[in-house]
Backbone:
């Protein structure tokens, strides 16, 4: 049977057996902030949390990542590739929205003739073990993007917090293989499954933010030059908070860093964002997105129009981090509502003038 | 599959200054390993990400044609840190190359058509690649009339003089050179590119126009081509954008749902009109 | 009187003044704060019509320094026909100080600006409250009596207002904007005549008593979660440079990675660039998504500037800040000091 029970005091045992072969990443509380870190013991693991500030994309797509290292010797150059991409990872205890973000990241990094092998290799070697959201936040809107607080389809193994214990379910083949190792896990009982279902329903009902995203790209595309973008971007200050803390944003910059004393160096990529004014600045001085209006608009268009055009799925997971953390409270939910109302206002104006 | 960010290594074979003020140089690179050279199969219009390892990487259009075997050439204007680094290169230095990137000129679709090549200033580099390719004896018969109109601010800025001389000697290509203002000793045409295009008046019948240059030149030239009845599908443009990774991953060159480094840099005017005007 | 009563009075006076200014067309736009869409937040707002004045609020969560909106890279508050718009700005003390300092640095023209002064009673320390509440969702925050009430689904907590406002607010000496002697018409509402402040900086005693190693460890642990999002820089009215030093590439001065040395260098150099200019509004700390408290560094710099140059920024439109001026009387013995 695929559904087992993991007692809360068995997490340590679970961890010890996995930590031998895997880099084990889990949510921990560091200085009052929940972060995903590679843990060296199970003591610090926190599963009863709202959500992290920095999304778990950070584990496979870190803020700073070495692309390759090099040695300079006169006119000669020696390049050294990454050697750690075959290490196996477990990402433990993430939310369904964040798990869905990994699907969106895979879509993006895998597209085209030159996929990003660095991310994809790590992703292939990573097992996702997630946990359902018993208490979604008022800013969560995963159900508006066809998600669900108990959506397990993007996981390998899925946990549900039943109080004293977790319901543990193997979802994918990878998950099933892994669960086989834990022969000491007891089978779940009917009551456990019933309780999980009840929690799932309660969680769904607890989602209060409901955005109408069904036709968002149809509203966005013809309204590229609409004056509403000026209103939407009025208070934006152009920092990188929304992009950096978005589970699906992937833009990066590339820098060479050389140690002048030993002529060794590395080419690294660091997180970048279309919200910075330098992002599209040409060397000639021309900047296609010169003001906040264009940059703010670009982010919304990218998530809700351009990404869906390429991949047939919305580029947002409904985690609500941008809503929680924007320095000026430029609420994405209000932005979507304003955009949806463009068509309604147009129709009203037509009725009045008719 | 290999790490797509690691360049293959080449050696600088020659560096030639292309203009009087000496801020545009053509650098010729030889692949250190033959298999890397064989794997670098490119078509005119593509670009590559070339790096001075330790300084940085930048996207430069490939100026050589694939028919010029043995090495590849890039024409680089000195603008920032990395390009200045290239200008200070010496023969024998190591340069990293990643590519070829982008879609290139549609040389298959252009077969059987009259080609009008219009370039302005420093943007002529991938047009050099295209014209040399078209003129090559293995392909020349696949294409009909070839007209080249190349404009510059002054005579000191004209690139690839040796190649232009060769073209002028041929009778299967019409080469028109122009500079903005009269100059002593200049016997070619005088005037901005757009009015010269109007003067030459290429027929739009079964033709493709390839336009590369600074934004103002492109704008005025396209206006003239439209007057000459060229349709948006017949006008091709190589888009300049801020690029970093060259493989559609860093996001810089993203316009609409396209990435200029992968879906471009060559776009027809018809395709450009469908994109948001953020370029 | 309780905090909420104070807030009601401030709000009413502010709205009355805003209504008058918009109705009489003395201003084209008023920049103020409106209620946030999530608890523990507020949002800047720009209103142009008299009927919108009820959107303006004052609720101890107005942490953004509105002076920032007067120095964008691309001018926004401009009408194609009218030219520069006449601006009204809701100003707590530090916003007023920022406006004066920006005028000293020739970034804004105070003649076009009406400063709607309000007597700030403190900004709630969002990150401190979030950390104390932990992993439970906060649904409501409001002031009551001398306390801040924080409510969630299954909890209600009370925090002493004086303890849970920003550290900078606790020692603030300029709660209402300074008036500008030769521009008396531009300061409305509550403004004060103030030319200098007395400050013992006793809040720094604990930090200053630390050893060098302890201070360095403090700086490292404070800054290590920085993601280089630059929310602090974008929220700061004094960071208006067209090209920030970290973004320069001819030459590249400092790296932009999240390695600890790179992070430390960014924050310390930015702090140095703010010496004698920072108006101690605390916006940088309030907006940081990682809850990094930059206030201590800010405060220490303010103390050094006060001690060496007897200068406090943003009080006097005529006085040049120390880093922009030179006097033969400037003491230089600090160069010979041993720390």
Residues:
């Amino acid at each position: 049977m695929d559904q087992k029970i993991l007692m809360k005091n068995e997490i340590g045992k679970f961890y010890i057996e996995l930590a031998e072969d895997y880099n084990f990443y889990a949510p921990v509380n560091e200085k009052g902030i929940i972060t995903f870190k590679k843990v060296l013991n199970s003591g610090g693991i926190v599963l009863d949390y709202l959500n992290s500030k920095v999304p778990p994309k950070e584990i496979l797509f870190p803020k700073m990542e070495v692309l390759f290292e090099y040695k300079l010797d006169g006119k000669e150059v020696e390049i050294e590739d990454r050697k750690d991409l075959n290490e196996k990872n477990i990402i433990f205890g993430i939310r369904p929205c964040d798990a869905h973000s990994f699907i969106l990241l895979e879509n993006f990094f895998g597209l085209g003739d030159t996929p990003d092998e660095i991310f994809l290799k790590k992703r292939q070697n990573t097992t996702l073990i997630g946990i359902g959201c018993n208490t979604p936040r008022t800013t969560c809107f995963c159900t508006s993007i066809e998600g669900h607080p108990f959506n397990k389809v993007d996981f390998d193994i899925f946990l549900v917090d039943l109080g004293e214990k977790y319901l543990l379910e193997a979802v994918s083949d990878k998950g099933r293989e892994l669960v086989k190792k834990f022969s000491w896990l007891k089978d779940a009982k009917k009551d456990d499954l019933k309780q999980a279902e009840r929690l799932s329903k309660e969680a769904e009902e607890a989602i209060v933010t409901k955005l109408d995203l069904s036709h968002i790209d149809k509203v966005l595309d013809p309204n590229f030059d609409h004056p509403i973008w000026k209103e939407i971007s009025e208070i934006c200050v152009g920092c990188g908070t929304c992009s950096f803390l978005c589970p699906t944003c992937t833009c990066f910059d590339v820098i060479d860093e050389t140690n002048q004393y030993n002529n060794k160096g590395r080419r690294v990529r660091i997180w970048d964002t279309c919200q910075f004014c330098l992002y599209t600045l040409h060397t000639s001085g021309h900047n296609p997105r010169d003001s906040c209006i264009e940059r703010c608009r670009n982010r919304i268009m990218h998530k809700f129009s351009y990404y869906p055009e390429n991949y047939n799925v919305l580029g947002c997971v409904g985690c609500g981090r941008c809503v929680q953390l924007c320095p000026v409270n430029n609420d994405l939910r209000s932005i979507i509502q304003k955009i949806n109302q463009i068509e309604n206002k147009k129709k009203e104006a037509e009725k009045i003038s008719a | 599959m290999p790490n797509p960010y690691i360049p293959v290594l080449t050696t600088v074979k020659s560096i030639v200054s292309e203009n009087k003020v000496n801020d545009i140089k053509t650098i010729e690179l030889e692949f250190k390993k033959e298999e890397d050279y064989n794997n670098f199969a490119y078509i005119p219009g593509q670009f590559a990400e070339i790096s001075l390892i330790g300084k940085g990487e930048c996207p430069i259009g490939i100026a050589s044609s694939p028919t010029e075997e043995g090495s590849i050439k890039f024409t680089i204007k000195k603008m920032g840190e990395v390009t200045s680094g290239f200008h200070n290169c010496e023969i024998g230095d190591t340069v990293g190359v990643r590519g070829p990137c982008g879609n290139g000129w549609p040389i298959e679709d252009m077969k059987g058509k009259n080609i009008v090549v219009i370039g302005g200033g420093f943007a002529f580099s991938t047009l050099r690649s295209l014209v040399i390719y078209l003129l090559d004896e293995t392909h020349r018969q696949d294409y009909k009339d070839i007209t080249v109109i190349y404009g510059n601010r002054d005579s000191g800025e004209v690139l690839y003089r040796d190649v232009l001389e060769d073209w002028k000697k041929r009778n299967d290509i019409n080469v028109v050179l122009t500079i903005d203002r009269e100059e002593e000793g200049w016997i070619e045409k005088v005037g901005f590119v757009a009015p010269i295009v109007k003067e030459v008046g290429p027929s739009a019948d079964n033709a493709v126009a390839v336009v590369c240059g600074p934004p103002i030149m492109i704008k005025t030239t396209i206006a003239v081509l439209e007057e000459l009845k060229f349709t948006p599908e017949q006008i091709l443009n190589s888009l300049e954008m801020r690029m970093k990774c060259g493989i559609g991953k860093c996001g810089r060159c993203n316009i609409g749902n396209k990435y200029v480094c992968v879906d471009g840099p060559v776009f027809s005017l018809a395709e450009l009109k469908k994109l948001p005007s953020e370029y | 009187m309780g905090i909420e009563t104070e807030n009601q009075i401030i709000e009413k006076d502010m709205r009355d003044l805003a209504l008058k200014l918009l109705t009489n067309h003395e201003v084209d736009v008023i920049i103020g704060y409106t209620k946030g869409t999530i608890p523990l937040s507020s949002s800047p707002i720009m209103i142009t019509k008299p009927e919108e004045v009820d959107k303006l609020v004052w609720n101890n969560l107005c942490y953004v320094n509105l002076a920032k909106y007067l120095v964008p890279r691309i001018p926004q508050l401009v009408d194609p026909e009218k030219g520069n718009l006449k601006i009204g700005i809701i100003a707590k003390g530090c916003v007023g100080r920022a406006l004066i300092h920006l005028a000293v640095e020739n970034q804004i023209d105070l003649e076009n600006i009406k400063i709607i002064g309000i007597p700030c009673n403190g900004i709630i320390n969002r990150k401190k409250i979030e950390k104390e509440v932990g992993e439970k969702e906060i649904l409501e925050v409001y002031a009551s009596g001398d306390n801040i009430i924080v409510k969630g689904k299954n909890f209600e907590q009370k925090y002493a207002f004086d303890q849970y406002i920003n550290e900078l607010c606790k020692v603030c000496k300029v709660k209402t904007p300074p008036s500008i002697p030769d521009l008396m018409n531009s300061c409305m509402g509550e403004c004060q005549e103030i030319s200098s402040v007395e400050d013992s900086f006793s809040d720094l005693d604990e930090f200053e008593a630390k050893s060098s190693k302890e201070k360095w460890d403090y700086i490292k642990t404070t800054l290590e979660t920085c993601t280089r999002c630059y929310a602090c820089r974008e929220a700061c009215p004094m960071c208006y440079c067209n090209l920030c030093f970290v973004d320069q590439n001819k030459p590249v001065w400092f790296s932009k990675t999240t390695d600890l040395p790179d992070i430390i260098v960014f924050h310390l150099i930015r702090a140095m660039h703010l010496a004698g200019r920072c108006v101690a509004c605390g916006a940088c700390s309030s907006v940081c998504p990682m809850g990094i408290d930059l206030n201590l560094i800010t405060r220490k710099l303010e103390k050094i500037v006060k001690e060496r140059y007897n200068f406090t920024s943003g009080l006097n439109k005529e006085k040049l800040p120390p880093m922009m001026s030179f006097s033969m009387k400037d003491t230089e013995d600090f160069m010979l000091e041993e720390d």
Residues 216-250+272-347 of chain A form one domain.
